[in-house]
Amino acid sequence: MFSNWQYRLLALVLALSCWYIVTGREKVETWAEMPVEIVGAPEDLAVRGDVPTRVRARIRGSRALIRRLNEQPPVYTLDLSMLTPGENGIALEKEDIPVSMALEVMEIDPSRLVLTADTLISATLPVRPVWRGGPGEDFDLTLAEAAPAEVVVRGPEPLVLTLKDIPTLEREVPGSGAGEHVFETGLALPKGVSSETAKVGVRLEYALKTKSVWIRLPVRVLPESVNGRKVTLVPRTIQIQAVVPLPLLREKEFKSLFSVSVVAPGSLKSGKHVLPVTIKAPDGCTLLKTVPEKVEVRIKKG
After folding, report:
1. What's the CA angle centered on 139, arms 136 and 145, to 5 degrees?
2. What is the pLDDT of residues 113-138, one digit of tens each?
3. Which tens digits make up the pLDDT trace of 221-269?
4. How many other CB atoms sit within 10 Å of the CB of residue 77?
5. Which of 4, 75, 211, 241 is the most exposed place for a label (fewest CB within 10 A)?
6. Domain range spanning residue 260?
7. Is the domain of 134 the same as that of 185?
8. How many angstroms separate the Cα of 175 from the Cα of each of 170, 171, 201, 268?
9. Bridge-based pairing state of the strands 278-280 and 259-263
């Protein structure tokens, strides 16, 4: 009985061994996907578009080797050392796939690539500040500049030749009124274009919008009498031309913020005298013209 079990166990071992040998030698085929490694690309050329990052190959071999291949696929090396400006046809050879000699590469997909290469050039271009927001409609932008004002970029010749400037990355400008706004930002470089300048400074300056207007104002005499003698003016009103900020113009009583006066010294005698007017204007206003610049002061006899 014991002897029979030994024979049976031996038979089972022999059967498993034969099955393993037969199945291990059985030929199978599979499509294996493998990553692409680019080598030898000329430093003065750039490939237009995208180069495939993976290729597929139909490979035939034993089941065990195929299983091992799928677990650890090889890397296909794409040599671009012969690349020239313009269109290049590159054959992908199945012989270049680094696999065991016990495996047979039947075909590779794709079998040919068409790559267009452009010469890399450098150019010096102005920097264009880009932003959104700002103080509001009552303010004018008086200055927008970048530091440095120009940067050197490098990229494919057909692309670089179309560039007129290099915009900055957009930044939000707070609505904090007139004055200077300074910030640092990066460059919005097109795909395929590079620059050694990573950051630039941007300075924006805003000023209140103004408007030139004519205003008629009453003239006051100071003092209203001279040594008890009554003082009158001719004319009693004048016109001024002034540059006024828009927010001030929207105020209903903005004229009351201006004052016009004539100083009559106590030494003046009775009669007619021509004296200059003195004008006081609110902050932010600029006086352009006064009509008339002098008025007649009449002092009655006491």
Report:
1. 100
2. 999 999 999 999 999 999 998 888 88
3. 887 767 777 888 899 999 999 999 999 999 988 999 999 999 888 788 8
4. 13
5. 4
6. 210-299
7. yes
8. 16, 13, 19, 55
9. antiparallel
Structure tokens at 132: 């959104």
Helix 2-25 to helix 63-71 angle (10° resolution) is 60
Question: How far is residue 89's CA from residue 51's CA, in Å, rounded to a whole number?
Answer: 13
Say whether both 224 and 294 belong to one domain: yes
- Whether the Cβ atoms of residue 57 and residue 109 lie closer than 8 Å to each other: yes
The answer to whether 118 and 85 have CB atoms below 8 angstroms apart is: yes
Inside any domain, residue 18: no
178 inside domain: yes
Of 69, 167, 158, 186, the residue nearest 126 (C-alpha) = 167
Bridge partners, 27 (sequence order)? 62
d(CA 276, CA 261) in angstroms, rounded, equals 9
Query: DSSP readout, 101-159?
Result: TTSEEEEEESSEEEEEEEEEEEEEEEEE--EEE-S-TTEEEEEEEEESSEEEEEEEHHH
47 within domain boundaries: yes
Q: In a 10 Å sphere around its CB, with 0-12 CB exposed, 13-18 middle and 19+ buried, how is residue 183 labelled?
A: middle
184-200 exposure pattern, b = at least 16 Cβ within 10 A, e = fewer: ebebebeebbebebeeb
